[in-house]
Write a structure and sequence with these properties.
Layout: E1 2-6, H1 11-22, E2 26-31, H2 41-46, E3 48-51, E4 69-72, H3 84-99, E5 106-112, H4 121-133, E6 139-145, E7 148-149, H5 154-165, E8 168-172, E9 178-179, E10 182-183, H6 184-193, E11 203-207, E12 213-214, H7 215-225, E13 231-235, H8 240-250, H9 255-265, H10 275-280, H11 287-299, H12 321-324, E14 332-339, H13 343-351, H14 363-375, E15 396-397, E16 400-406, E17 411-416, E18 422-430, E19 435-444, H15 446-472
Parallel strand pairs: 1-2, 1-4, 2-3, 4-5, 5-6, 6-11, 7-10, 8-13
Antiparallel strand pairs: 9-12, 14-19, 15-16, 16-17, 17-18, 18-19
Helix pairs in contact: 1-6, 3-4, 5-7, 7-11, 8-9
C-alpha cells in the first residue's frame, strides 16, 4: 500500500514511519523542510519525501495520484495562543484539495477526545478539523486520544520535569480533572491497526489506556514509579495565566504551549467506549507500564522523537535555510582555532555538545544564561537534546537550533533561539589540516546589541577559550 504520511518529522510521525516500513508499505513523507527529516540514510532510501506547507497555496500535481491511504498528523497548538485554530482549519482544507486529485481511499486522523459539551479552544479546533476532513473525497477514520505518554512526548516531559524538580507542589485545581492517558506504543498500534480496515471507515473512535486518573494521581504515580514521594497541595486561586507561567518556568514547555495545555487541562478527557480496542483485538497498557516503557527507551538512548525538536518549541516557524549563510559584514566575532591530534575523536565531542554533556566549560555560567533567558520569555536550557550523540538539522540543542550537521564535512552550525538584541551563530569546523575552528558570530540590532556584546566579552574569553580546549582534548 502506498501511504502519504503528513507531519512525518513530528513526534507521532517519527514513531509511525518505521512501523509502516516494517509492515512493507511504500511511504511518502510530507514535510515543510526536507532537511529536517531526522532519519538515517538507509531509511531515506526506502521513502519518498515531499516538501509541502499545508498553510501555503496549494500546488497542483505535488502529491502522487497513486496514494492509497494517508495519515493526517498536522497540528498547530503550540505555534500560537490566538490563531492556531484558523491555521489548523486552513491546513485541513488544503489537505483536502491536495488529495482530491488522488485515488486515496482512507485518511486516518489522530485527534483529541471531545466528549464534553463545552470544549477548550484546542479541543474545539481538533473537532473542527475532523469536520473538515469528513468533507474530503475519501473515507475518514478518526482516532481520539487523551494524554499520550512516551519518551519525548510533551505530556510525559512536563510530568517528568514537575516531579523531578518539585518534591512539594502548590497546584491549581485543574490537577483534579480526570483524564485517560495512553502509551505511545498503544497509539501506534491503533494507527496501524485501522489501516485498510473498511469496518473503521467514516467513523470516530476514542482510544485510551487502562487507567482513568486525575492529573494529581498521574504525578503521584510517576513519583512512586521513580522511587520517591511528592507532596501536592491544591489551591483554588491560581488563574489560568498564573498556571501557564507556572508550567513555563518549572518545565521545558514553551509559554504558547503552556497556555493551550492549561486551557485543555480543565476539560475531562475520558474515552466513552472501547469499541475499537475490541474490534482490533488490542490490549492497552496501564499508565505505570507506559512510564516504564518510556524510561527503558531513555536509558537505552533509543528516543526516536521529541516534541522539543518541533520548530514551534523555539523562535523558528520555518525557513532554516535563510540562516545557514553566516553573515560576514556588520557582525562581531569570537574566533578560536586549535590543532588537534585525533579529528575523529574531536568530532565525536562536538556531536555530544549540550544536554547532559554540557558545553565543556563553565556549565554553571551557561545555566545562569539559560535561567535569565527563561525569565525574559526565552526557551532557556531545559529543552536539552533528544539523543546524546546524534544531531540532525532542525533539532533543538538547549537554547540553540541546529542549522547544519554535516559529519562528513566535519561541520556543525547552530543558531541561537535565546532572547538577544541581535542574531547569533555558533560554528564548529575541522579543516583538512586537522585544525578545529570555533566561531561565535553576532549580528547586533542597534546600539543595544553592541552594548550587549561588549558587556559579555570578558565571559567569552573564558567560556569559549575553555570550551575549545576541552573539546580538542578528544576525550572519548
Amino acid at each position: 500500500m502506498k501511504i502519504l504520511l503528513t507531519g512525518a518529522n513530528g513526534y507521532i510521525g517519527m514513531r509511525l514511519l518505521p512501523r509502516l516500513l516494517e509492515l512493507g508499505h511504500d511511504v511518502v513523507c510530507a514535510v515543510r523542510d526536507q532537511k529536517r527529516l531526522s532519519v538515517d540514510e538507509e531509511t531515506l532510501k526506502k521513502i519518498e519525501v515531499l516538501e509541502i506547507d499545508f498553510l501555503s497555496e496549494v500546488k497542483e500535481g505535488l502529491v502522487p495520484k497513486d496514494i492509497d491511504a494517508a495519515y493526517y498528523l498536522i497540528h498547530s497548538m503550540s505555534s500560537s495562543t490566538e490563531d492556531f485554530d484558523e491555521k489548523e482549519a486552513l491546513s485541513a482544507e488544503n489537505f483536502n484539495r491536495y488529495l482530491a486529485h488522488t485515488r486515496v481511499q482512507q485518511v486516518i486522523y489522530l485527534s483529541g477526545i471531545v466528549n464534553e459539551e463545552k470544549l477548550s479552544k484546542h479541543l474545539e479546533s481538533r473537532k473542527n478539523v475532523e469536520d473538515i476532513l469528513y468533507q474530503g473525497s475519501y473515507h475518514l477514520t478518526v482516532l481520539r486520544a487523551g494524554i499520550i505518554v512516551g519518551s519525548g512526548s510533551s505530556s510525559f516531559e512536563i510530568i517528568r520535569d514537575l516531579c523531578e524538580k518539585l518534591p512539594v507542589m502548590i497546584t491549581p485545581k485543574w490537577v483534579l480533572t480526570r483524564t485517560q492517558p495512553i502509551g505511545i506504543r498503544d497509539v501506534i498500534n491503533f494507527l496501524t491497526g485501522v489501516l485498510g480496515r473498511e469496518d473503521t471507515y467514516d467513523q470516530s473512535f476514542d482510544i485510551g489506556g487502562k487507567d482513568i486518573l486525575t492529573y494529581k494521581e498521574m504525578l503521584q504515580q510517576y513519583a512512586k514509579a521513580r522511587g520517591f514521594k511528592n507532596w501536592i497541595y491544591t489551591v483554588p486561586v491560581m488563574t489560568p495565566k498564573l498556571s501557564s507561567y507556572w508550567l513555563y518556568f518549572v518545565t521545558s514547555t514553551s509559554y504558547k504551549l503552556a497556555v493551550n495545555l492549561v486551557d485543555s487541562m480543565k476539560m475531562e478527557v475520558v474515552a466513552r467506549d472501547n469499541r475499537l480496542q475490541e474490534l482490533l483485538g488490542l490490549e492497552t497498557h496501564t499508565y505505570l507500564e507506559a512510564i516504564d516503557m518510556a524510561f527503558k527507551k531513555i536509558e537505552q538512548n533509543l528516543v526516536v522523537s521529541s516534541w522539543k525538536d518541533s520548530m514551534v518549541s523555539g523562535r523558528f516557524q520555518k525557513n532554516l535555510e535563510k540562516y545557514i549563510q553566516v553573515p560576514k559584514y556588520g557582525v562581531l566575532k569570537d574566533e578560536k582555532k586549535m590543532k588537534v591530534d585525533d579529528p575523529d575523536a574531536v568530532l565525536k565531542n562536538i556531536w555530544r555538545i549540550g544536554g547532559e554533556q554540557g558545553w565543556y566549560y563553565g556549565n554553571w555560567l551557561w545555566k545562569i544564561r539559560g535561567f535569565i533567558d527563561k525569565l525574559t520569555g526565552g526557551v532557556g536550557l531545559r529543552r536539552g537534546r533528544t539523543h546524546p550523540d546524534k544531531i540532525y538539522p532542525g533539532d533543538s540543542l538547549d537554547f540553540w537550533r541546529v542549522l547544519l550537521a554535516d559529519k562528513k564535512g566535519k561541520r556543525l552550525l547552530l543558531f541561537a533561539e535565546m532572547r538577544l538584541p541581535g542574531e547569533a551563530w555558533l560554528e564548529f569546523r575541522i579543516d583538512k589540516d586537522s585544525v578545529l575552528h570555533q566561531t561565535a558570530t553576532f549580528r547586533p540590532k542597534g546600539l543595544r546589541g553592541r552594548l550587549y556584546w561588549y558587556t559579555i566579552l570578558p565571559f567569552h574569553y573564558f567560556i569559549f577559550g575553555g570550551m575549545i580546549r576541552n573539546i580538542a582534548r578528544a576525550r572519548t
